[in-house]
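Regression check, zinc ion case 417:
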Amino acid sequence: MWPLLFWLFLSAGALVETALFLGQWGWLNRLGRNVPAELASLLPEGYGWWRGVTYARERLRVSLGLLLTRYAAVALAVGAGGLKAACRLAGAVSGSPFLAGFLLGAILTTAFALVELPWGVYGTFGVEARFGFNRSSPGLYLRDAFLKTALSSGLAGFLLGGASFLLGRPGGLPLALSGTAVFDVAAAFLLPRLVLPLFFRLRPLEEGTLKSRLESLFQRTGFSASSLQIADGSRRSTHGNAFFAGLGRSRRVILFDTLAERFPPGEAAAVVAHEIGHWKKRHVPAGLLHLFALQASLVLFAWFAWRAGGFSESFGLPGRPEAFAVMAYLVWGAMAGLLFQPLLSSASRCREFEADRYAAEQEGPDAMIGALARLATDSLAWTPSEPRYAAWYSSHPSVAERILALKDLKAAALSGK
Ligand SMILES: [Zn+2]
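Current build output:
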């Protein structure tokens, strides 16, 4: 029954996702050179509409390649013996469930990263470079790829090792659930301190107009200036960005230098206010809760399948905890991707609207509208997505949707007075 369920969900996932991608491809082709009526009044003068559509198409090609590569890699690993060989190797090196699980997690994560690497390289040096966005050198790119793979392999190894160790032990289920929660919170605290400095040089904001502009924002919102840092995003790409990371005292707003230096202070302040909005509206704990709910459903699924017995053997794998844990992850992943992806995207889009609203309250709707329009213009990101594709994948509403929501807000505020 398990293999049937797995192959059913995996092929359903591949079909649904490919259909969504093809829908988006057709949509972009139909958009072509015609600017949709609702966008015409929003686009800044001189915006390269056709260039934007071409860029979206090229990026979609890379994402589709990556998607199909992933599905093929999972199918080959499970169906053609790749996973079996990895399990045998990990089990031969060590008999202890933790170490064997650690090795297996690290081997598989590294293998997947290597398979996906060509798409990443093409995306950066083929697509991003062609549109003038890439600033990363091959050396820096390889260093990043190596670091990311090492970090995620270590992390996957640790989680799979922990899961293998706890499986079947008395008290293992509550321990696995509480261990997962502790791990999530610890990761949220450590991410800004340990991981961000590996990829960015972070510096405090220098004195100047932006700083004085932000100081009053910090005062109003109870945020401390020391938790805003400027990252040298310009070393890798020209895309402007800002994000929020961490919990409690380790929380940080990270503003890319590309944005801090190029945007008028009022608009940069609106972007910072948007990130503070994520914090004020408790989006970080909400995101952590979603993550934990997902992981808890995996733990419960694994526990159920372990008790039922014969799970990993039905895939031709050894009945050892690490083989079981990895297969439980793959089966659950095939199901969860289909069931939860649209829900998570929709929750994330709601949070973005909320943070925009907060920014508009702090810095005025016009500053936020200006910032969004500038970001979209600089990154050729005005092209809207096909509605079903956007509903499934987009973590952010389209720029036009965000700007129109802010304009509504402004109109409502004006008529309310
Ligand atoms: Zn946001």
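Comparison notes: The longest strand covers residues 252-256. Residues 124 and 134 are 6 Å apart (CA to CA). No diff flagged against the previous build.
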